[in-house]
Amino acid sequence: MIIVLTIMMIVLIVVGAVLYDDTEVLGWVLLTIGVIGTIAGIIATVWIGVEVSHLSVIDEKIEMYEQENTIIETQISETVKQYQKDANYQYIPVSCEILSDFLTPITALRILKNVSDHVFMLESVEGRD
Questions:
Q1: Whole-angstrom Cα distance, residue 75 to residue 111?
Q2: Distance (Å, rounded) from C-alpha 16 to C-alpha 22?
Q3: Is the CB of residue 45 less than 8 Å from the CB of residue 2?
Q4: Which run of H or of E encompasses 8?
Q5: CB 3.0–4.6 Å: which of 25, 37, 107, 128 could bond 103 by disulfide?
Q6: Residue among 124, 92, 118, 88 at smallest CA distance from 105
Q7: What predicted TM-score, i.e. pTM, was given to this entire model?
Q8: DSSP track, 60-96
């Protein structure tokens, strides 16, 4: 989107340069808007490129989920062992609820899928939603 806006600003520069010969004021205004918009677009594109190339936020989130996943796996393992000691169970249903305000369910599933092959997503619908 930023690249499209930057291209539009470059077009404004060209139109402004063409109109500058006929009407100096309109040409000057278009040139000024085009130059300022192009500079802002280039700065925004470079800034976003640098931020995306670092991906530090995503790496931090993945590390946090890996740590939480390790804790959850340990708790599940201990619970399963306790059930196996107390009774003669062959299968033990296990579930985990992960609350997240900043990830979509699909993103969370992808992150967890990188850590374990035993990842499933169950969704429920209430009403007609």
A1: 20
A2: 10
A3: yes
A4: helix 2-22
A5: 107
A6: 124
A7: 0.38
A8: HHHHHHHHHHHHHHHHHHHHHHHHHHHS--S------
Q: What does the alpha-carbon distance between residue 7 and residue 38 come to, in Å, rounded to a whole number? A: 8
Rounded CA-CA distance 30/21 in Å is 13
Amino acid at the residue 118? H
- What is the tens place of the pLDDT at every residue in 8-66? 778 877 777 777 776 777 777 877 888 888 888 888 888 877 777 666 667 777 888 88
How does 45-62 read in b/e, with b if 16+ C-beta sit within 10 Å? eeeeeeeeeeeeeeeebb
Q: What is the residue extent of each domain of the chain? A: 2-54, 56-115
